[in-house]
Specification:
- 0% of the residues lie in helices and 60% in strands.
- The protein is mainly β.
- Strands 1, 2, 3, 4, 5, 6, 7, 8, 9, 10 and 11 form an eleven-stranded antiparallel beta sheet that branches.
- Strand 8 (119-131) and strand 9 form a beta hairpin.
- It is globular and about 45 Å long.
- The protein starts with 7 loop residues before the first strand and ends with a strand.
- The mean pLDDT is 87.
């Protein structure tokens, strides 16, 4: 029944390895408290590694693993693991719908202190190229466990590719 704005995150990435069909990155997400409880209001550093693999026919698998470290004592460190599959259905240069990709992502958040249960959500979503290497992504995380980070909500990203 609450309507609120979530927190904002910035994720600088370092490319560790790249081939035609595979990328491996080291990321450091900075989660900045900009929203209100109960959905937001947390700040953390999240070092992680992530991969992207182009299977064939536009199908892609991506995933990663990281440690969410609260910066304000907002609870225990949390192991975050993600695995997603999606398919790109348009060419890169189609205006506003270039590289249009639909996907589903599974995310598990596991407290490392032993306090609390692992929460798992599935996020169906989409990604599209806006132009000049800017992408828009949107998704709707759907909790699938009793333990949950939040109830239903939307996620929106703007991403600049290198």
């Amino acid at each position: 029944s609450d309507t609120t704005f979530g927190d904002v995150s910035f994720t600088p990435r370092v490319l560790l390895y790249e081939s035609r069909d595979f990328s491996l990155t080291a990321d450091l997400t900075v989660l900045t408290s900009t929203g209100d409880e109960p959905v937001a209001g947390k700040s953390a550093l999240i070092p992680s590694v992530a991969f992207w693999y182009n299977i064939a026919g536009g199908w892609v698998v991506r995933g990663g693993i990281g440690d969410s470290i609260p910066t304000k004592g907002d609870g225990p460190d949390t192991l975050i693991s993600q695995l997603a599959i999606g398919q790109t259905v348009s060419d890169h240069n189609v205006p506003l719908f270039g590289d249009f990709t639909y996907y589903v992502s599974a995310v598990a958040n596991t407290p490392l202190s032993g306090d609390g249960d692992t929460s798992v959500s599935l996020t169906p979503g989409m990604r599209t190229h806006l132009g000049n290497d800017w992408y828009f992504l949107a998704g709707m995380p759907i909790p699938v466990t009793d333990a949950r980070v939040a109830d239903l909500g939307m996620i929106f990203w703007f991403m600049k590719a290198w």
